[in-house]
Design goal:
Elements (H helix, E strand, L loop, with lengths): L4 E8 L4 E5 L9 H20 L8 E11 L2 E10 H7 L2 H6 L9 E8 L4 E6 L10 E2 L1 E4 L2 H4 L7 H13 L8 E8 L2 E9 L4 H9 L9 E6 L2 H10 L6 H15 L1 H7 L6
Parallel strand pairs: 2-4, 5-10
Antiparallel strand pairs: 1-9, 3-4, 5-8, 6-7, 6-11, 9-10
Helix pairs in contact: 1-2, 8-9
């Protein structure tokens, strides 16, 4: 069973995504839910510190609602912080407070495909209980940097993330493939075909100032067999929204038959 829900699918270009950001609008939880969030956040800080992981209570965007009409994707955003995301983004919170809203932060992720036919993955070892070893390049939409002068734009956020993590300036077309929801939040998935090889990408990263969050870059071949095999073998250590990103890329690149067949493959 997938750990995410596909909310909207299609191919979305920059001019087909509309954002309505309402600064200053925030969730007001009932006292008991607020105390639950405080307790989870304190435990998260302790376990992160024990693992040598620094904690940052960043200002991010909440996805309040969305609509897909006539090939366009419309998003309504408000304010939330990372602390609230940790505290409310669990199955335990949802079970204890079934009628309370969750933080639902909005993130972006991308299947980067190099010119030599490889899909880029990031691998991390310093991970907390919420994260897993593998992901595609991804990150939160952040209010401090993504809403300074204009309405936030997920395409610009993704370009920023790629620049910060890889040192690469994306000048090639970006295509949104869908919006997904997991228990910890929502994510817009993209794909992009790079004009450089993977070896060149490694050189660019090595010679750039990056945020040093990634331990290593790995790849899988851009082929239906290789992607399907990876998804089966890494069902438990691949971030769910990263899995969604690869699946939606595969739907576009390899067809509906491939996409439908993945759901019937057993994990190992």
């Amino acid at each position: 069973m997938e750990e995410f829900e596909l909310l909207a699918q299609g191919i979305f270009t920059d001019d087909a995504v509309d954002v309505d950001y309402r600064p200053g609008v925030r969730i007001r939880w009932e006292p008991s839910a607020g105390k639950f969030i405080d307790k989870v956040w304190e435990a998260y800080i302790r376990t992160s510190s024990d693992s040598g992981i620094s904690v940052y209570n960043g200002k991010v965007f909440r996805l309040d609602s969305f609509a897909r009409v006539d090939g366009r994707l419309s998003l309504t955003l408000s304010d939330i912080d990372f602390r609230s995301c940790i505290g409310s983004g669990t199955n335990q919170f949802a079970a204890a407070f079934p009628h309370a809203p969750q933080a639902n932060p909005l993130s972006v992720s991308v299947a980067l495909v190099t010119i030599d036919g490889r899909i880029v993955l990031e691998k991390r070892s310093r991970i907390d209980a919420r994260r897993r070893k593998y992901h595609v390049i991804a990150g939160f939409m952040e209010r401090d940097v993504d809403a300074l002068d204009t309405q936030p734009n997920p395409f610009d956020t993704l370009r920023r993330e790629v620049r910060e993590e890889l040192g690469l300036i994306l000048e090639c077309p970006l295509y949104g493939t869908g919006l997904v929801r997991a228990v910890y939040g929502s994510e817009i998935c993209f794909y992009c075909r790079l004009p450089v090889s993977f070896e060149r990408l490694l050189e660019i990263k090595a010679n750039s100032e990056t945020d040093c969050e990634i331990d290593a870059l790995e790849t899988i071949d851009d082929s239906p067999t290789a992607v399907a095999s990876f998804l089966v073998r890494h069902a438990t250590d691949f971030v769910p929204s990263g899995r969604a990103c690869l699946l939606l890329y595969g739907r576009q690149a390899y067809g509906e038959h491939w996409y439908d067949g993945i759901a019937n493959l057993p994990s190992v």
